[in-house]
Amino acid sequence: MTFTVAALYRFAPFDDPAALRAPLLDLCAAQGVKGTLLLAREGVNGTIAGSAEGIAAVVAHIRALPGCAELDVKYSSAAAMPFQRLKVRLKKEIVTMKVPGVDPAREVGAYVAPADWNAVIDDPDTIVIDTRNDFEVGYGSFAGAVNPQTKSFGDFPGWWRDHAADFAGKRVAMFCTGGIRCEKSTAFLKSEGVADVVHLKGGILAYLEQIPEADSRWQGSCFVFDERVSVGHGLVEVGDKD
Predict the structure, then answer these.
(1) Portion of the chain with pLDDT greater than 90, in percent
(2) Per the database record, which ranges form the Rhodanese domain (predicted)?
């Protein structure tokens, strides 16, 4: 059996995320879906795996939640179930930045489609920043991208504030695994007064899925948060970098 893997997120206003937990947990369990979903007042985030029918049922349920009709979902496949258990957790943030007032549902940087990304990052006046942590960057990144060498995403605001002057007057293009950290990091840069900031729509996973390897600016593989460890072009499982 081939399992369908869905990496999904949506920034949306949930007045009572706790009330959403039990129905979602029950549906996933009934469909044999495993993985982790995070619920917070700012939305939903997670990666789940199961049968194609089971994943479709869960995705349809989440799309019906307030503000989630445009849920961002990236699908891939795995030969074995990549998760051991099912977890639906309540959190303060669906991606932890710890900067009060940053709201990607209100304002984010401009989206760049994977097909247009090469032209953006080839521009010498554009600063390309990898928003992932140093461990993830070790698996691969875009050629020439700045690595902030953070241990966690929560370190990114401090790094930016320490280096913002180095990038003054430049367009800033940011990317991450699936797009969620970029939504929050571009919202953060907007709140810091950066006017020209863009990010890769759908993240590295969308780029690797859509851009032929011959045209790619990506080097290495992309770390993913399940037992596949990392994937390459076409989202084919690569495994550990060693």
Answers:
(1) 80
(2) 122-216
The string of DSSP letters for 165-220 reads GGGTTSEEEEE-SSSHHHHHHHHHHHHTT--SEEEETTHHHHHHHHS-GGG--EEE
* Band of residue 139 on the pLDDT scale cut at 50, 70, 90: very high
Residue 34 DSSP SS3: strand
List the domains of the chain with CATH numbers.
1-88 (3.30.70.100), 108-235 (3.40.250.10)
Count other Cβ atoms within 10 Å, centred on residue 23.
Answer: 12
Q: Is residue 181 within 8 Å of 187, Cβ to Cβ?
A: no
Question: Whole-angstrom Cα distance, residue 121 to residue 55?
Answer: 34
Is residue 176 among the annotated active site residues? yes
Nearest to residue 199, comparing CAs of 94, 92, 70, 107?
Answer: 107
CA geometry: angle at 216 spanning 211 and 217, to 5°?
135
131 within 8 A of 175, measured Cβ to Cβ = yes
User: Would you tell me the crossing angle of helices 114-121 and 203-210 to the nearest 10 degrees?
Assistant: 100
- Looking at residue 229, its pLDDT comes to 65
Q: By the 8 A CB rule, do 111 and 199 touch?
A: yes
pTM of structure: 0.84
Which entry of 28, 176, 182, 222 is annotated as an active-site residue? 176
pLDDT tier at 85, thresholds 50, 70, 90 = very high
